[in-house]
Amino acid sequence: MIKKEVLDAMNEQINAETYSAYMYLSMAAYFENMGLSGFAHWMKVQYQEESAHSIKFFNYVASRGGKVLLKAIEQVPVDFDGIVDVYEKTLAHENHVTSLINNLMNVAIAASDHASQNFLMWFVDEQVEEEANVEKILSTLKLINGQGNGIFMMDRELGQRVFVDPNTVA
């Protein structure tokens, strides 16, 4: 049985992961409206990843005998000041999610919940990857000043991203 403090924190994380998914879908819509289908596709894959993370937490809580409590999702941003702004907000958000995962790990450690610590290590590693991916894109965007032919090349490249569901990988 999962300890109450860990359960409460994981239910908060389910909400945070769902918020993240919705935020990335909003960013995808922004890019679609700009005619940047590759950037939109990249954000749709982010949406899928965050949705999968939410389900991963959901399934874990249920498997430990905990009750999943779904809460309302806060309104996500819908207006942005260009491509660079979107990725700066994406990086800031991923940094925030990293802090949430680290705090969740601290709760599991304090509760001596070794199973949850083991489960959370996947998310710790995932956040390192998430931040690095966004930093790379943001660095390239800043190099080309967020404009010009480089945007079209990036659009084509980002449109090639493939979603891999972590809930189905053995």
Layout of helices and strands, plus pairs?
Blueprint lengths: L3 H31 L2 H27 L19 H28 L3 H30 L5 H10 L12
Helix pairs in contact: 1-2, 1-3, 2-5, 3-4
Secondary-structure content class: mainly alpha
Number of domains: 1
Assembly type of the chains comes to single chain
**Architecture (CATH level 2) name:** Up-down Bundle
What is the CATH homologous superfamily assignment? Ferritin, core subunit, four-helix bundle
The dominant shape is elongated
Percent helix among the residues?
Answer: over 70%
* Radius of gyration, whole Å: 17 Å
Poorly predicted regions are none
Give the CATH level 1 class: Mainly Alpha
Could you state the order of secondary-structure elements as H and E? HHHHH
User: Could you give the distance between the termini?
Assistant: 25 Å
CATH topology: Ferritin
What can be said about the biggest beta sheet? none
Q: Could you give the count of β-strands?
A: 0
As a percent range, the share of strand residues is: under 5%
Number of helical elements: 5
What is the residue-mean pLDDT, rounded to a whole number?
95
